[in-house]
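User: Let's play a game. I give you a shape written as tokens, and you guess the letters that built it. Ready? Here's round one.
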């Protein structure tokens, strides 16, 4: 192999190196993502209790649930640029410890203002985590392998909701213990878990392939050469500086598409427990939270199977479009007055809103590199995640205007249809090192 010849995707050393990286890094990254999503979304399980104990209205809850993303958007880009400079290990540890402390502090909420303030602070604290992980992926996994790795990483999203729902519901059983409400115990314990894992990050996450002992010299050299060549190819195509990033029409396309996807995603996440509660005609607790886990269990299977199929067919755009259509239709069906169709709709909707994101990130990760990638990923995630702010407020507004809970579902489903108009302009096939531009 000459210096000009890059290891092919089927090169045994390259395969061995990426397999080792996945084995050593993915379990911990998935654990981090599970805790992040649990601390971000457990407020949905607390909705009824916050109303009963503190008088927090539906409108205030919707604003507080969504305002998380305002703080998140404000600090996302600077956080990711700092991560690029100081290294993922230290910066992501800082992020996790900070958001864990803020999440645990939600137990001290006393009314509307403190609820909104702490949700905003949680967004500020968590800013940079998800795009930091996306950037971290580019330090370890070549583009050809990244579709499968992203699919496995997104496994953490539905797994958090599958396991976290019953866990959170179970913590409600501590109601009255030590003079605390069940929802207070939930925020305290799950926030404390983030703090513990944050400290563990300092020991579990190496920054680059050169920093580890579990890759031999040949594996380090092979992996580093492939990753460097991909960065160089993208930079040579005009993707390598922040000035070009600001002028990139692709950035606007990615941001708009991601924002619409988040409307659908958080339109499900924040309201799924209450929706299941209404379907079962039972108060949120262990049983409702267990049934709520079923749609997320379906999405666990989806995030494993669909990205692999998309990678095998080399058809990311088709996979994206199918998921967007499925989420829109399923959300509308979940508003049925009949329990079985409604629950089936929730299962398909939850699967689609998770899987579509695992497919989506392959497009911007293939388009940007280096410092530009750090800024691009952060901008897409931060501005796009304002869709998470919009989602609960859109549902609340639509429900009030039409005086029916189905109106909010239809409004959120419409976002998926709007996203189709953007998705059709993405490239139909995956890119390679020799074809870096989208």
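Assistant: Ready! My guess for every position:
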């Amino acid at each position: 192999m000459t210096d000009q010849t890059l290891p092919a995707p089927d090169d045994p050393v390259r395969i061995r190196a990426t397999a080792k990286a996945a084995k050593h890094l993915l379990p911990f990254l998935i654990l981090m993502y599970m805790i992040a999503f649990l601390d971000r979304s457990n407020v949905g399980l607390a909705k009824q209790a916050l109303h009963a104990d503190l008088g927090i209205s539906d409108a205030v809850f919707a604003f507080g649930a969504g305002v998380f993303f305002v703080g998140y958007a404000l600090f996302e880009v600077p956080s990711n640029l700092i991560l690029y400079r100081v290294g993922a290990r230290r910066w992501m540890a800082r992020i996790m410890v900070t958001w864990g402390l803020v999440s645990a502090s939600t137990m001290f909420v006393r009314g509307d203002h403190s609820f909104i303030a702490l949700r905003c602070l949680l967004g500020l604290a968590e800013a940079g985590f998800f795009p930091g992980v996306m950037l971290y992926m580019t330090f370890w996994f070549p583009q050809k392998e990244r579709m499968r790795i992203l699919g496995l990483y997104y496994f953490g999203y539905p797994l958090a909701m599958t396991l976290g729902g019953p866990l959170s519901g179970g913590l409600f059983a501590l109601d009255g213990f030590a003079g605390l409400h069940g929802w207070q115990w939930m925020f305290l314990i799950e926030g404390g878990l983030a703090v513990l894992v944050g400290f563990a990050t300092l020991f579990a996450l190496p920054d680059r392939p050169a920093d580890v002992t579990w890759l031999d010299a040949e594996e380090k050299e092979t992996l580093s050469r492939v990753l460097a060549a991909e960065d160089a190819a993208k930079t040579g195509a005009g993707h390598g500086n922040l000035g070009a990033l600001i002028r990139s029409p692709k950035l606007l396309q990615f941001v708009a598409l991601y924002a619409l996807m988040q409307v659908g995603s958080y339109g499900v996440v924040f309201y799924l427990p209450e929706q299941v509660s209404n379907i079962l005609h039972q108060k949120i607790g262990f049983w409702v939270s267990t049934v709520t886990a079923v749609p997320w269990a379906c999405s666990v299977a989806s995030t494993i199977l669909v990205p692999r199929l998309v990678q095998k067919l080399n058809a990311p755009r088709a996979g994206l479009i199918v998921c967007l259509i499925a989420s829109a239709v399923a959300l509308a069906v979940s508003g049925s007055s009949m329990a079985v169709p409604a629950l089936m709709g929730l299962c398909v909707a939850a699967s689609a809103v998770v899987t579509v994101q695992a497919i989506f990130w392959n497009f911007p990760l293939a388009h940007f590199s280096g410092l530009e990638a750090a800024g691009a990923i952060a901008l897409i995630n931060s501005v796009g995640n304002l869709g998470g702010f919009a989602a609960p407020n859109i549902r609340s507004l639509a429900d009030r205007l039409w005086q029916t809970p189905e109106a909010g579902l239809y409004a959120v489903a419409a976002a998926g249809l709007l996203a189709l108009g953007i998705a059709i302009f993405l490239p139909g096939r995956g890119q390679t090192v020799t074809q870096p531009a989208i």
